[in-house]
Amino acid sequence: MAEYNELVERYLAVWNEGDEQARAAAIAALWTENATYTDPMAEVAGHAGIAAVISGVQGMFPGHVFQVHGPVDGHHNVVRFGWELVPAAGGESLVIGFDVAVLAEDGRIRAVHGFLDKVPAAV
């Protein structure tokens, strides 16, 4: 389980990375070149698409960070985990979601399927 926890920590760190170049390098290290990301509001492929979604979310929710919400679980090449978007200074979560990541042979992410459990009314 430690490897799954570490993967999720790296995944959320990418979503929290504010520097575009550092984020691009982290995406390349964590995701396969043709990886996909799908949730109710986005469906993208490749590093540029993933970077664009993350940048868009950061733009919509400035001053907020992603953190793990609940236990991380996994088997074979699949990892599931909950996350929440909270004010960086602390406070109640604004968004809560659940992601399922499918890993490639080399341990990088090849697909993420995201679900939103709590969203603000304005989104």
Automatic annotation (TrEMBL):
Q: Which domain of life is it from?
A: Bacteria
GO MF terms held by the record: isomerase activity
Q: Which residues form the SnoaL-like domain?
A: 8-111
Q: What is the lineage of its organism?
A: Bacteria, Bacillati, Actinomycetota, Actinomycetes, Micromonosporales
Pfam families documented for this protein: SnoaL_2 (PF12680)
Alphabetized, the UniProt keywords read: Isomerase
| Name the UniProt record assigns to this protein | Ketosteroid isomerase-like protein
Q: Which species expresses this protein natively?
A: Micromonospora polyrhachis
